[in-house]
Amino acid sequence: MQELAAAGEQGLVDALRRGDEEAFASLVEELSPSMLRVARLYVPTQAIAEDVVQEAWVGVLRGIDRFESRSSLRTWIFRILTNIAKTRGIREGRSVPFSSLGGDEPAVDPERFLGGHWAAPPRAWEGGERLEAKETLDLIESEIAKLPPAQGVVITMRDIEGFDSEEVRNVLGVSETNQRVLLHRARSKVRRALEEYMA
Amino acid sequence: MRPDRELRCVEVVELVTAYLERRLGAPEVERFERHLTACDGCTTYLDQMRVTIAATGRIRDDDIPAGLFERLVATFRLVTGGAP
Questions:
Q1: ipTM over 0.85
Q2: Fewer beta carbons below 10 Å: N end or C end of chain B?
Q3: Residue B4 Cα to chain centre, angstroms
Q4: Is the CB of residue B75 less than 8 Å away from at least one CB of chain A?
């Protein structure tokens, strides 16, 4: 996003409105990789995710005249993207209703506690350099892919793509509390997967 | 959470994200941290959550597939009516 900021967001919006292909191309290069990653969480294949990203850019180009800078350009683009991805995911029979937080999902297996305190406490992870390995990052990615889409999207935007909580809330239209619950469940499951892997 | 008693580990693990997001009030933060000073298990747990977040943050996106990029530029020309 540094390049976006350097160009000046208003300048970029004006360029898109003028039909400046170079400005469009650089914005596409900058945002599409993260858009693809997010879209992929809603739909079953990479090819459909690419269709969703294309449809989102059409929405951006058609809607740019109505963009009002109440949110950042990135927030607005991701709102368009996630709406299209959600609709497509439902049509493909993949997505569950996004707003549902699901039932009670404890962060840690209740059997590890006795009287509310650790009976089987976590053991410190040895060999921290393993955490840097590509194999570990692949494991995290596959764990995120297994999450319910709402959780997967929140952890992806927050922890991989570096959106702050307010931006995620604005993109997804969820409350602060719901965003945090989704993030908590997602991170807890990824930690659990790493714990098994590091054991 | 009642303020008149100490936290249990089973509660601490559910508060970790709120703690890291700085969404706990001052008395809750104090209680949370008081528990940590006396509990190795929860200290390790919090550390692992931090490590998990950092590891997730090392995942990088692939570049945009060349075919998709070309499709998008073609779409741009179509929508804006620009010359090919």
A1: yes
A2: C
A3: 30
A4: yes
